[in-house]
Amino acid sequence: MAVATETIETMSGRGQYRALAFRRIMLIGVLLLALFFSLAIDMALGPANYTLSEVLTSLFHAETVGDQLRVVIWDIRMPIALMAITVGASLSLAGAQMQTILANPLASPFTLGISAAAGFGAALGLVGGVAIFPGAVQYMIPINAFLMAMAAALFIHFASTMRGVTVETIVLLGIALVFTFNALLSLLEYLASEQALAAVVFWTMGSLTKATWPKVWITGAVLIFAIPLFARQAWALTALRLGEDKAASLGINVRRLRLQTMLTVSLLAAIPVSFVGTIGFVGLVGPHIARMLVGEDQRFFLPASVLCGALLLSSTSVVSKVLIPGAILPIGVITALVGVPFFFVLIFTNRRRAW
């Protein structure tokens, strides 16, 4: 009788797990459909508005539409719309894994100073013509931003591995980096000419308007490179959420896992920011929305974080076009307006129970 009861309980537990997994998969599917819908709307909006039917026809039957519509959709609007998706997905995935390896709900490329470092690197090129990597003067702005962002990310990582360093210390280090790079950026703005100052201010606001197909391919390639790496480590990253000691007892090399994850996160955070400028809070808000929807299991949390970040920035791109008719607002401004209230919610609610 006891064996039969145990068997029934086991079968019931398996049924509940399968139902939960199916629900999570359905939620991921809904996010995917919403992302496609947002992409279509983003490409429909602009100085010349098109209907969703015209956009879909241009996407799937380009040979049947006029040259003007095809050029507008494929050559002008699609790179911007896809850039929003790849950048949002990259920043959200970077924030998700930062929060995982640092055990910190406030970790993200923006709050830990990586975006601020990229802004300072770009300003060095825009104001002083300084190329951190002398052999690539033609691309010094994105390269400067990328190298400074990588340096900040690696600093955060190696600081987190020092003896006696706590989660609170990492947060304080990130805040210190934000203020340091913002102060240096303000100094460069003070010394800049009017033309250079305008370029720096526009860059630090974040914008997708200069997106091109090569930039889309590069950010997409980094994202495609990172997702399988994290997917292979899904079990280890999920176990790390139980704590370092428990993860180590399961045979996980925590130090190596953190180093590999931080290097990949650095690429995910630095390359998009180097192309589109400072875009805050996507890396913070996206993972938390995904976590509320599907939980901590990386098998579901990983794709949900990617889709939430992509949907968030794609929707923000839509909002930036409709708030003021005839004008496209800097997308970094919109994400900050969305992210700040969410940031306050994290501060004033007791999130420690989940961490």
Automatic annotation (TrEMBL):
<feature type="transmembrane region" description="Helical">
    <location>
        <begin position="139"/>
        <end position="158"/>
    </location>
</feature>
<keyword id="KW-1133">Transmembrane helix</keyword>
<comment type="similarity">
    <text>Belongs to the binding-protein-dependent transport system permease family. FecCD subfamily.</text>
</comment>
<feature type="transmembrane region" description="Helical">
    <location>
        <begin position="110"/>
        <end position="133"/>
    </location>
</feature>
<keyword id="KW-0472">Membrane</keyword>
<dbReference type="Pfam" id="PF01032">
    <property type="entry name" value="FecCD"/>
</dbReference>
<feature type="transmembrane region" description="Helical">
    <location>
        <begin position="327"/>
        <end position="348"/>
    </location>
</feature>
<dbReference type="InterPro" id="IPR000522">
    <property type="entry name" value="ABC_transptr_permease_BtuC"/>
</dbReference>
<dbReference type="GO" id="GO:0005886">
    <property type="term" value="C:plasma membrane"/>
</dbReference>
<feature type="transmembrane region" description="Helical">
    <location>
        <begin position="265"/>
        <end position="289"/>
    </location>
</feature>
<protein>
    <submittedName>
        <fullName>Iron-siderophore ABC transporter permease</fullName>
    </submittedName>
</protein>
<feature type="transmembrane region" description="Helical">
    <location>
        <begin position="212"/>
        <end position="231"/>
    </location>
</feature>
<feature type="transmembrane region" description="Helical">
    <location>
        <begin position="170"/>
        <end position="192"/>
    </location>
</feature>
<dbReference type="InterPro" id="IPR037294">
    <property type="entry name" value="ABC_BtuC-like"/>
</dbReference>
<dbReference type="GO" id="GO:0022857">
    <property type="term" value="F:transmembrane transporter activity"/>
</dbReference>
<dbReference type="GO" id="GO:0033214">
    <property type="term" value="P:siderophore-iron import into cell"/>
</dbReference>
<feature type="transmembrane region" description="Helical">
    <location>
        <begin position="301"/>
        <end position="320"/>
    </location>
</feature>
<keyword id="KW-0813">Transport</keyword>
<keyword id="KW-1003">Cell membrane</keyword>
<keyword id="KW-0812">Transmembrane</keyword>
<feature type="transmembrane region" description="Helical">
    <location>
        <begin position="21"/>
        <end position="41"/>
    </location>
</feature>
<feature type="transmembrane region" description="Helical">
    <location>
        <begin position="76"/>
        <end position="98"/>
    </location>
</feature>
